[in-house]
Write a structure and sequence with these properties.
Phage tail protein beta-alpha-beta fold; 3 domains; 34% helix; 13 helices; alpha/beta; elongated; four-stranded mixed sheet
Length: 386
Amino acid sequence: MVDRTLHHRTALSQTHRNTGWAAAALLFALAAPAAGLAQSPRNAHAADSAPRRTEVVLEIVTDRLGSNVAAQEWGRLMQRFGYEFHMRRSPLAEKPSLRETTFGRLRRVTVQGRLDTLGRLIMPNGKTYTLPRADKLIDWLRELELYGAQGRPKNDASFGFTKAQLSRIAAALANPVATDLSAETLAEALKKLQLSPSLPVVVDSRAAAAWRQAGDTKVGQSFRGIAKGTALAAMLGNVGLAFRPWREPDGRFVLQIVLPEPDRAVWPIGRPVQGLPRDVAPQLYQFIDVELNDVPLRDVLDAVALKTGVPIIYDFAAIEEAGADLSEKISFGPKRTTWSLFLKSVTNPRKLTRLYRLDDAGRPFVLITSIRRGVIEPSRAARSRK
């Protein structure tokens, strides 16, 4: 967990920042391009979104050669566990299937399987079940009873959603942040993000204590114009948290705040640029003449973002970990260079690096992070957002 005093250490006082900003902006202005939540997220559902009652119904198809004895044994077993069970004969090769229908607060999952000549049940999850190992089938039926026909959400790049569902979620998270969040606490910033009502934010029980501790931490950077999903991932990352789109047992889609774990898929802070960064942010490769004398590093970086129009996001947690201080006064030049090389020159000596990313709307930005995380992050991002 990042200490709550981090931003007091790395951010400048408002008066000092204004002075430093003006100095850096003035110097860059002379460098012309070369010719050419009042409430915190809820842990509990509101009354109007109480979990549905779910019933699982089994429809088993067999041909004339199917085992009558096995059919009766399967029927008695399902009755013992409280599942409605129907058998019918059909000479047609009907494929196993899953259907889900809702009637008010009732969710009905209909499982159509097939009984083969050996008395085994062939089910739509691609598995075959035998009477001696019927417990495996019961486990799967209980999962359907809890989560519906889509089953338990998967811990992978799809987060257990269909491609169409994930596209709708991504579209909602691609909307830009409309206001400056730098002076807000994390809890207040979450409200001002104005996330879609169809994607309420909830806190995983294991992350509840960390969220309560982090709620009063200042965001410390603007995020205006950045996609909401990217901004939320960055804000949470700076206090040792993350989020993922999730499907609750009652079928609701939510954004779940979680503790990051090595094997847990979470929403990333943007996506790596595929191809050359100059293709998505050519302004970073313009030549400039730069000279700086004792200007705070944070003000220099903010001025680069202002002059190029490419936002910079700060990974405060990684910067703290690297032992870097954004209030450090730096000098540079005079030298003719590009914005990209200039960023490298002022970050690398401080064990920092810059990653070129695209936010959830496909807009470029620069992530300032530690060299260590810069090495780890690309491979992790590739796994989580293939």
